[in-house]
Every structure is written in structure tokens, then in C-alpha cells.
Amino acid sequence: MRIGITCYPTYGGSGVVATELGIELAALGHEVHFISYSQPFRLSGRDGGIFYHEVPVSSYPLFEFPPYDLALASRMAEVAEFNELDLLHVHYAIPHSVSALLARQMLATRGRRLPFVTTLHGTDITLVGLDRSYLPITRYAIQESDGVTSISDYLKDKTVEDFGVTRGIEVVPNFVNCDVYAPIADEQKRAEARRKLAAPDEAILMHLSNFRPVKRVVDVVRIFANVVRQMPAQLVLVGDGPDRSEAEWLARDLGIHARVHFLGKQESVNELLPLADLLLMPSQLESFGLAALEAMACKVPSIATRVGGVPELIDDGITGLLYPVGDVKAMSEGALSLLGDKTRLEAMRDAARKTAQKRFCATLVVPQYVRYYEAVMKQ
User: Fold this and answer.
1) Whole-number Å distance between alpha carbons of 51 and 47
2) 2-175+361-378 falls under which CATH superfamily?
3) What is the C-alpha to C-alpha distance for residues 355 and 178, in angstroms, rounded to an integer?
4) Which of 24, 29, 82, 131 could form a disulfide with 366 if both were Cys (CB 3.0 to 4.6 A apart)?
5) What element of type H or E holds 134?
6) Domain spanning 187-359 has what CATH number?
7) 317 Ramachandran zone, left/alpha/beta (phi>0; psi -120 to 50)
8) Residue 151 gets which letter from DSSP?
């Protein structure tokens, strides 16, 4: 198939999943065309069968805000026509579904059919889409999509409940390449790599996010502060965003800044995650929890919150530990309990990796998308 993919090409989960999906589809022999305002950051530019089409947005004095959604729709129609695309797959409802709908209508006037699939990722439904100014158009775009998928049962139910959507929604979970995200088999090599971050007797706790308020990165620092009072440890934070400064100041105020390392945005997180003992994910809300899945594949269990789609990913007490939002004390105690019980931690590490392999590997999930594309094209 020839597939067009549109996503936000940033460090958010929806962009990561969309990019990884395109890479996996190309590896299966499909032709993939990314259509966005900049190249998705995980694309190397050397992937066979993958093409990138930039969306130019004109800045006329008349426009206070450049109309990206209209420029995107026009570019989608162009790329689809010039490259004979079979369908579009848009990630994140706003404004991508609306732009795809316009592109479909434009091509229909010329006798060409261009179905599109919308994948709902989370904040497009739970936050942005519920804004009263966007709700009607979001609902309409979802209803008018030729196919709709959701990354979790939680998000599917939330969409139906909050938007009154009556059409079918297919749940296709997020996935991970289990060959790329994998533990370091050679313990000596792992130990050598860990020494760059911590001493041999120190635990490594890690956090990976876009540092938005919903990720509660301040809670991460507070949890670590409680842990490091009881045992030697280091905290590694991967990513960047609006709450980074507050987290940095808190670490300094608590006197633990020498043990807290802000690495900023990193492309090769698959090389960092296997070095951790635990991932901290105390989010206010997660529709899935991609960071936790990537950690699980690397044999790293999570201390996380029992919210949204997280319980669909993490089996409490088996592949990680789940707690109420904001319960820093309980999460700290859970982390200390695991780190102090090597046998239990090792069992949880093994279970995390096995769950990722059995349920969430790209080899299992990507074919679900392919079958769904085929069903949509037959409609």
C-alpha cells in the first residue's frame, strides 16, 4: 500500500508512535509518505520506502495566525494525487482529521477516493477536544473519518462518553520494537554504561516525558528525594518542557541537585532505559503510557499512577506498582521496597519484558493496523 501519515513531529507520544509505525510499515514493504510541517525527529532520512513532504505555511500580513490546517489539507491532497496514495492515517484529531476530511472532499470532486483513518492518542480527546470551541468540529471529524482507532479501551470509552460518538472505534494499542528496546544482555557492558550515571552501589531511577504539568515531574523529584534519604541513588530525567525549571529549582531546594541529572531531549532513549532500575511515571493522566512500555521492553518496571489506560499496560504488583495520583509517600515507599528486594525486583523485570514481548511488540501490533487499513479500503 501507499500510505500517507500526518502527525505532530515532536517529542510527544503521538508523534513517536506515528513515526515508528511508518518505519515498521516501510520495513514490511509498504510505501510511506509523511506529511507535516517538519520532519519527525525519529526519522533518519535514510529509511527505505519512506518519503517526507513538508507543509509550507504562508505568513501574509492579513493572517494574525497562519492557517496551518488549510495548508495541510491542500498538501495532503497534492501528495495523495501525485503519489497515488491508497489512504491517509492521521494521528491526533485536531486539526489533522479536519484537514484529512477537506483533502478527501477536494479529491472526491475530481473523481478520486482517498479514505482516511484517525488515531486518537489522548489529549486530543481528554483536553483539547473537550474545549467548547473545538468540541463540535472534533466530534464531526471523528464521525466522518473512514476509520477510527484508539490506543486504549479507556480512551475509546472516554471518546464515546464525552463526544457522543456513535461510530465504531477500533482499539489498537501502542507498540514498541522489541529488538530496538531491549535489555543489555551482557551484564558487564551494562555495568560499564551505568558507571557514567551512577556508582556501582547506587540505584538509577529514570523519568521520561515532555515535562508538561500533566506529567507531574515535580512529584518525580519529591519521590526521588524520599528514596535517596534511605539509600544511595541517582535520578536521570530525559526530556524537556515547561515544568523543567520548577523541577530543577526543587532539586536544588531539597539539596539533592548533585544527584539529579537533566539530560534534555534524547533521540536514543533505547540506550538509556536499560540502564535504569525503575521508571517513575506519576502522571495526572495517561491514555496509555508509552514511556512505561518502552521501559518494560528494556526490562525496567515502573512506579506509576492508576489512571487512564495505565492499568491496561501495567499489571500492578507484577510488571510495576500503581498508586493514586499525588501519593508521593506511597510511591516512594514502593520504590524503596522494590530496590531493597533484589529477588522481587528481578522477577518484576523479567515479567515486564515478557509482557512487552507477548502483547505490545511491533510485530504483533503493526499487522493490526495493516488489516484495519485493508478493511477501511474495502468499505
Assistant:
1) 8
2) Glycogen Phosphorylase B; (3.40.50.2000)
3) 11
4) 24
5) none
6) 3.40.50.2000
7) left
8) S
